[in-house]
Sequence to fold (1423 residues):
Amino acid sequence: MITLTHYLVLAAILFSIALVGILRRKNLLMLFFATEIALNAVNIAFSAISKYYGDLTGQLFAFFIVAIAASEVAVGLGLLIIWYKRRGTIDLDSLQSMNG
Amino acid sequence: MDHILSLLVFFPALAGMLGFIVKKENIKVYGITVATIEFVLSLILWLVFDPSNGGFQFVEFIPLIPNYGINYYLGVDGISLFIIILSTFITLVGLISLNIEKNLKNMIISLLFLEMTMVGVFVALDAVVFYIFWELSLVPMLYIIGYWGGELRVYAAIKFFLYTFFGSLIMLVGMLFLAYLYYLATGTISFAIPDWHRLILPYDYQIWLFLAFFLGMAIKVPMFPFHTWLPYAHGQAPTIGSVILAAVLLKMGTYGFVRFLLPIFPDASVALIAPIAFLSIVMVIYTAMVAYAQEDMKQVIAYSSISHMGVIVLGTFAMNVEGIAGSIFLMISHGIVSGALFMLVGNIYDRRHTKLLSEFGGLASVMPKYATIFGIVLMASVGLPLTIGFVGEFLSLMGIYKISAAYAFLGGTGIILGAAYMLRVYKLAFFGPLTNEKNKNLPDLNWKELTSLVSLVAVIIWLGVNPNPVLKPINASVESMLQLMEKKAITKEAKDIFAHNKVELEAK
Amino acid sequence: MVEAVAFYLFAALTIAMFAITVMSKNVLYSMSSLAAGMIFISAFFFLLDADFLGVVQIIVYSGAVMALYAFGMMFFDATKDVKEKNPSKKIVFFLSGMIALLLVIILLSPIISEKVKALYPMSEEVGNAEAVGVVLFTKYLVPFEVAAIMLLVAMIAGIILASKRMDESITLKIDQEIEKEQKGEL
Amino acid sequence: MEKYLLIALFSPLVGSLFAALFGAKPKRLLTGIVTSALLFVSLISSLILLVHIASSDDIVRVKLFDWITVGSLNIPFGFVADQVSVIMMVTVTTVSALVHVYSIGYMEHDKGFNRFFSYLSAFVFSMMVLVMSDNFAGLFIGWEGVGLCSWLLIGFWYHKKDETRDINPSISPSWAANEAFIMNRIADLGMLLGLFLIYWHVGSLQYDVVFAHVDLLNIGLVTLIGIFLFIGAMGKSAQFPLHTWLADAMEGPTPVSALIHAATMVTAGVYLVVRAFPIYSQIPDIGFFIASLGAFVAVFAASMALVNTDLKRIIAYSTLSQLGYMFVAGGLGAYWIALFHLMTHAFFKALLFLGAGNVMHAMNDELNIFKMGGLHKVMKYTAILMIIASLALAGIYPFAGFFSKDKILEVAFDSQHYILWFMLWLGAGMTAFYSFRLIMLVFFGEERYKKYGFHPHEAHWYMLLAMAPLAILAIIAGFFEESFEHFVTKILPEYHFHVHGIVTVALIGVTTLIALSGIAFAIYKYSKGGFSEKWKEHPIYKLLYNQYYIPIIYEKVFTEPYKELSKIAWKELDLRVVDATVDFIANVVYKSGFAGRVVQSGNLSKMLRWMVIGLLVLIVLVIVYSPVR
Fold:
């Protein structure tokens, strides 16, 4: 029997994979990918909870997350392209102008 | 008359906002007009004030956040009434004597804003409102010191701001906790000070809360050893800044003592008389000595301010009518006198652009009017009878004598040491031969300076000869406060003190 | 039983896909595996009776988002292997591992489910898409509209950002260039 | 009668304010005339009151309005003219009216003419407040008021610069003024404490309430009150060890010295003891201490007068010495005798000072008596007046000093304090000697002033005329002894002598003898050219000449260490410890900010790592503080 816990653990694992990506990769594009994974992991958790508590709110939350992810990709990619045009690289370490 | 307090608080600020659209040439007249109206309003307040009523009058109450007991709650009693009048009076006098060219408009607007915060602090009966005004008062002062000050102005301004701000934050924590305790005791949260006055707290809580409040206020007073921001602030501030700082802003601290510490924590206050008296006495003697060593005229007066504030604190913790009423009167008199002294130093600074005592000498022969007024104010400062300075000092020391003769004696050394450093200044600046060439053609006071100073001198002598109109309302309020404290006292020590802290005729 | 098999199968697939996404040096591989992972995730939604969400997942993620990425990648040199100087892997894996471990611990612990009361209970009579639609257009109408506006804004922003002639944009010039320009060097 | 009381009190104030109007203006003779006239008004009112009280025994009381009302404290502006205060009023107004007239001449060339009269009349007002007040607080107002005026008047010639002690032992007028003020403040603190003590145990500061209540207080308390009040009296009356200011106060104009530092203000301490007799008669031990201190000062001050060369300082020491006599009488319970001596002393000492003023005027403010001599030829009247004053001071029959001073010696003998009596007796001899040393050196002998190129001249006729009444009083005042006693003992306690007849006569004889021999010795010695120069090298001479080195000791022990300490307090303690601590805390915060700045390197991947670490910490916290266990 697959319980809520199964789903949640799966979500946790996926989220950790995303974290690995966020931490490990320096390529901004890869960071975007990792972010998507993290969002999806959370989505799974939401819909699982929604199902096991019999409440639609979780699903709707996931739905809005998808919307946000889509917008994020649109804007983020735009910015990324600009950056690439100007600098010729999308390496994270090149984003150093915020030096404190 | 229902909303006279709101009018008093917000009129200067609103008028200050309007000041932005006033032409540059007219701004000074505008400022003086506003301050005069404000002053007249405060006098009207006094006129309609019922001196025999010890409670709060002209109370205004508008709920702001009722769930958390935060309300727009104003009121005035004998304790705050005269400090309000002092604030408006000093602002007016300061504006008249204002002698600044640089960005005059901003100066006058900040002064009017400052006036709002000062009056606001003294009329607030809700701790949150009190705290808001308390903190807001830092902003214009920071600007005044930081923009118009001397060479080290930024350092001085930041030190002033951060130091006092630090203290107030601890006080804020105290306030929040007190409101929480109120909630535990009654089931509703309240930030109203009169509500807190009725709250009887356990002794341990009292001590800790007392310390939290005390720290915030002690820095403002400033009590030794939290006083070091003051000489810098005074040394760097423009004349008007020093005048208002010494005359009114320092009084917020001692006013807080009377308004919060004594009635809310009577047992803790009694328990901590000894350490506080010790600090005050150190403050009196030590700063008097430091004042004696100063080479800069303004610094002498800055340190003398601290020294006198020590006597005020002593009087406050005398826990009897004489002492507390005396200390409140001393707050007013110190406001007038130190304001006048700073103004006088400002006058000479405007002429010579130096405040170093070594630059002066023999000024009495070139500036006789100046010397005369300085002399009168000086005598008020050292507490000569029939000047305003005596009444408060006499009563404060008399009050603390009942607690302990030693405190009164040690605090009283202030009158000797005070005479020593003030007379030293007077001798160095005004007496002796006129040696410095630059001083030979100094002009005497002009009408602008004379107006402001003479009005201060008039108050000095009037309230010195006839302090009763002021003392009567103070007396009524202090008496009712002491009754409250006596009723609230829980420890034996406090009960003893309140029961015996009055004249007791002895029979053989 | 079918459910269990499906869950484990898709779980393994998703994890594998995403692992490839994260570890691969080639961006194209990463993207492809990400797209695949997304589709596999929608399987969970179907398993969880969230049909509508599953469909949205496939359409939005695998369709729109991945298309965006694909187009975006055309701007970059995607054929090259990504060269990164990675910091110590130990820290990365330690942190992620710890978080995973702790999350699992948290999630394995029993949840007090009795107290949770459904706000919008699922009904058996109507289909999932219908139920979602009802809730979405009644209770969540305002957020929905806001989300729509957000998407619109994001779309416009994306277009403008990607299409503008970057060489002359003042807003994005870095300070040095502005200075140079002021000095008349540019 | 209330009307006269108020006129007597306020007319000096009116005069003072009138003169103050012209304060900074050039000399106006009018100010001098108006203030003097108003003082005569005051004098006449006081006399009317005196006659009224003497004839009807009616005590006049006036209450103007409440001054301070707080708690149970109520201090009114209340004034009383009873037997004691009316005597003081008459004495004060007499001397001050005459001094005012005299000053018109004395200050005629001074730039601060108007200012001077303003201060002088203000002084008289304060003194009247002091003596007429019906409560201790009012007394304190006058007490401080006369202190203020004394400060203003000692420092009247403020423009003079500071000298070393060798050139001018008082350093400068402004220095002397400050010294006087601060010294008095020290004593005032004692007095204030006394007032507090009275208030907290009696609940009032009104004389009648306090004195009615004294019997009920326990004796320790009364002793303490007595001590505190006497500390106040010590300052104002310049008793040891607070005496140094009086000699330095001679820096003020001479009329000031005559009025303030001889006749009136310095006797305020005696007045206080007399006024507070119900307290002091309860505590004879303190009384004896006061008497002992008085006797000590009587001899101590007289010894310094023996060798001094400064005309005014000699008279100042003699004042000090006479104040000692008064305290002996007061301390031993002979209050009316103290008051009597106070009055006669006021007359002849003012006369002496005014005479000295004439001499100074004639000698262009030269004060060294060794630069004078033979002046009687040019200043005949002054010489006569000063000799009258000196005879009175020495206590020769029939001059006023004889009656009052002799009574004090009798009291000392009668109360069986023979040591005190002996000291006073010795003092009487010394007094006679230095008085006539002064007369001889100034008015007789070789005309040394010619060597220094002085051209002395007699003073204005009205100055001499102003002195004449004082001279007459110095001669005849003694004969009012009986009526004076009768008058004031309606309030003050009588002093009952135990020795009578032959012993009294013998005492008078012995005292007169030593006074006469003192005079004779002075005349003999100084008609022959005085003591040899060798005497000046003698350690005793130096000790006396340098006032027992007390001013120097004070400077080394109190003033200079205080200056040093305050420098240390400021530069070391305040700046280096207190302020540095504050700055240190600020610096720690500032520095830790700098240290923590590394975190914000701007590198995104590092930031991400920090973020994840933060996340980890949060999750750990969630686990640790989880509400679900």
